[in-house]
Amino acid sequence: MSEKAPKAKAASPLAVYVGLATLSALVAFAAVYVMLGRPDNETRNVPGTVSAPQAAKSGTNALSTGPMTTFVFKKAAKPLPDISFLNGKGETVSLKDWRGKVVLLNLWATWCAPCREEMPTLERLQKALGSDKFQVVALAVDKAGLDGARKFLKQAKVNDLEVFADPTAREGTELKVIGMPTSILIDDQGREIGRLIGPAAWDSAQAKRLIEAFL
Question: What pLDDT is attached to residue 28?
Answer without folding.
Answer: 38
